[in-house]
Amino acid sequence: MSKIIINRISEFENRARKIKLQIDGEILGEIKNGEELTFEISPGHHYIQAKIDWCTSNLIETHIEENSKIKFELRKGLGSALYRTTFGYEKYLQLIPINS
Q1: Phi and psi for 23 in degrees, rounded to 5?
Q2: For residue 12, what is the domain's CATH number?
Q3: Cβ 63 vs Cβ 45: under 8 Å
Q4: Cβ pair 41, 23 in contact under 8 A
Q5: From 59's CA, which of 44, 50, 67, 89 has a CA 20 to 30 Å away?
Q6: What predicted TM-score, i.e. pTM, was given to this entire model?
Q7: Domain hosting residue 21, numbered range
Q8: Domain count, the chain
Q9: Whole-angstrom distance, CA of residue 28 vs CA of residue 30
Q10: How far apart (Å, rounded) are the C-alpha atoms in residues 76 and 67?
Q11: How far apart are CA 84 and CA 100, in angstroms?
């Protein structure tokens, strides 16, 4: 099995809230502030996104090989919270690939 690892950095904003993690449109779990989660998935083509209320992160399209792992860092998006909850709601969060 292959693995996707998501590390949510500890931040003041949204610190008391959990963020939903979606892989291929299916919610697989919720991540707390400062937490790291690992999901076992089948090899192949996948879409990864984080979601809180109506706001989301960038949509990551990735291909994962058999018995490999891909790591991402989850953090708040750029700009003010007011902008990100209105016009920038699709970039409220950022998923950033990390080379390990």
Answers
A1: -125, 120
A2: 2.60.40
A3: yes
A4: yes
A5: 67
A6: 0.88
A7: 2-98
A8: 1
A9: 7
A10: 30
A11: 29
